Amino acid sequence: MPQRATFADSAQTYQSTLRSLFSGSPQNTETDLSKIFSPTFHFTAGAEKYDFAGFVEHIRRLREMKLSVNLTTVEFLRDGKLLSERHVSTTVLQSGEKMAAETFMFAEIAEDGRIAWIKEAVLSIEG
């Protein structure tokens, strides 16, 4: 029996996992994300909606862009299989342009410890 994933058990390991989404090799995106997200995973952020395959393609495109993402978890709450997290991030594009955001994330953790779904609200931060 495979071991249960534990990255969503603490703010520190969850933050590290979120950071890893943007730093891996584009060729390894599906393999990397399979360790984090369940096969039935779905993601919603406003008008953006992805199933697992669509989310893999989305992250692969971001990895190909070679973004620099600095992400810090500010609040983290885990209650059974439900998770709530707020993080701030600064993304630096290849052009040098910087974008800052605050993200409010709600998620459900599957029995095996991987993420079953995520719903996010992202606010751009000026300055």
Automatic annotation (TrEMBL):
Domain of life from the UniProt record: Eukaryota
Protein's name according to its UniProt entry: SnoaL-like domain-containing protein
Question: Per the UniProt entry, what species is this protein from, by scientific name?
Answer: Trichoderma ghanense
